[in-house]
DNA sequence: GAGCTGACAATAG
DNA sequence: GCTATTGCCAGCT
């Protein structure tokens, strides 16, 4: 099992209408500081995979994507379709992590 | 084959 | 409490 594969698996486990942080995913893979890899992993998916990459944001609840294929607007829209409310904060889309952050049993361990 | 890059997070000062 | 630096590991050049 490679790092990327684990990121995909955990990302796919995120339920609809819920979001997770990069660090959270990284922590599930037993590598809390590999949050950068999580984000980059999702970038390589490029939407071609069946992985809900839009459900992964940074720990502050901000969308920090500016790629052509992953603009903040796109990610925000995908999440809003799932019931996640977004607010424009400091020029970036922000969501309340306290309400929408996914709490899996594995992440609690 | 080696070095650089990359959607962040945590620790130290 | 806030700012700056280090760490993470696989893909890309």
Can you give a write-up of this model?
The protein has helices spanning 3-12, 22-28, 35-45, 72-80, 97-100, 105-108, and strands spanning 20-21, 56-57, 87-89, 92-94. By secondary structure, the chain is mainly alpha-helical. The chain has a single domain (3-108), classed as Arc Repressor Mutant, subunit A, CATH 1.10.10.10. It has a two-stranded parallel ribbon. Strands 3-4 form a two-stranded antiparallel ribbon. Strand 3 (87-89) and strand 4 form a beta hairpin. It is globular and about 35 Å long. The chain binds a DNA duplex (13 and 13 nucleotides) through residues 2-4, 21-23, 26, 31-44, 53, 56-59, 63-67, 70, 75.
Topology, element by element:
Layout: H1 3-12, E1 20-21, H2 22-28, H3 35-45, E2 56-57, H4 72-80, E3 87-89, E4 92-94, H5 97-100, H6 105-108
Parallel strand pairs: 1-2
Antiparallel strand pairs: 3-4
Helix pairs in contact: 1-3, 2-3
The protein binds a DNA duplex (13 and 13 nucleotides) through residues 2-4, 21-23, 26, 31-44, 53, 56-59, 63-67, 70, 75.
Descriptive terms for the model:
Arc Repressor Mutant, subunit A; globular; two-stranded antiparallel sheet; mainly alpha; two-stranded parallel ribbon; 41% helix; 109 residues; DNA-binding
Reading the helices and strands in chain order gives HEHHEHEEHH
In total, the number of domains comes to: 1
**Reading side by side through the largest sheet, how are the strands ordered?**
1-2
Q: Which shape, going by the Cα principal axes?
A: globular
**What structural category do the secondary elements indicate?**
mainly alpha
Unreliable spans are none
Query: What is the beta-strand fraction?
Result: 5-15%
CATH topology grouping: Arc Repressor Mutant, subunit A
CATH class: Mainly Alpha
Helical proportion, percent range? 40-55%
- What name goes with the CATH superfamily? Winged helix-like DNA-binding domain superfamily/Winged helix DNA-binding domain
SS elements, strand count: 4
The pLDDT mean sits at 89
CATH architecture: Orthogonal Bundle
> How many H/I helical runs?
6
Quaternary organization: single chain
Radius of gyration: 13 Å
N-end to C-end Cα span: 20 Å
What does the main sheet amount to? 2 strands, parallel
């Amino acid at each position: 099992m490679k790092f990327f594969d684990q990121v995909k698996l955990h990302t796919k486990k995120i339920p609809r209408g819920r979001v997770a942080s990069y660090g959270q995913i990284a922590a599930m893979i037993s590598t809390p500081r590999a949050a950068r890899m999580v984000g980059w992993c999702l970038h390589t998916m490029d939407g071609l995979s069946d992985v809900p990459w839009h459900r992964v944001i940074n720990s502050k609840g901000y969308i920090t994507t500016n790629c052509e294929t992953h603009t903040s607007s796109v990610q925000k829209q995908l999440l809003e379709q799932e019931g996640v409310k977004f607010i424009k904060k400091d020029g970036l889309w922000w969501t309340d992590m306290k309400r929408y952050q996914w709490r899996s049993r594995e992440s609690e361990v």
